[in-house]
User: Fold this.
Amino acid sequence: MVRLADLSQAEREGHLNRVATLPKFESRPWVRAKPLARRRVALVTTAGLHRRGDRAFDAGGTGMDYRVIPGEAAPADLVMSHLSVNFDRSGFQSDWNVVFPLDRLKELVREKVIGSLAAFHYSFMGAISPVTRYEAKARELAALLKEDNVDAVLLTPV
Assistant:
């Protein structure tokens, strides 16, 4: 992963200036949340992960699509087809929890910090075109999460 300190001054300022364009949320959530210890949590990542044998993400990263990762997946089951030239895969290769912290979430379930884990987790390709329309796939994924009784999502943006 590229650090801001590694970028030229112009690139660094360009990225930091984008922060001002992010939406501001003036209100609080419109629902009361149950305690984390009673929540069912799913992992959603933009690391471009998929199971061995599943279709890899496309080279252009233009398609808004995701891959389903079963909750019992092991590190050896997953492949990263994230295609950004700015992405360093060495962290994932050393410890999948860097981008897909399933082991850490399982520990939190055992420690009763969170209630349970979803049966399935999801991975998108992070290097997708900014003109891609997200709403249809987001609604599709929301329906899958709802079907699995998920009430909290941990997003690991890569």
User: Anything to note?
Assistant: Residues 35-156 form one domain. Strands lie at 40-45, 49-51, 66-70, 78-80, 116-117, 120-124, 152-156.
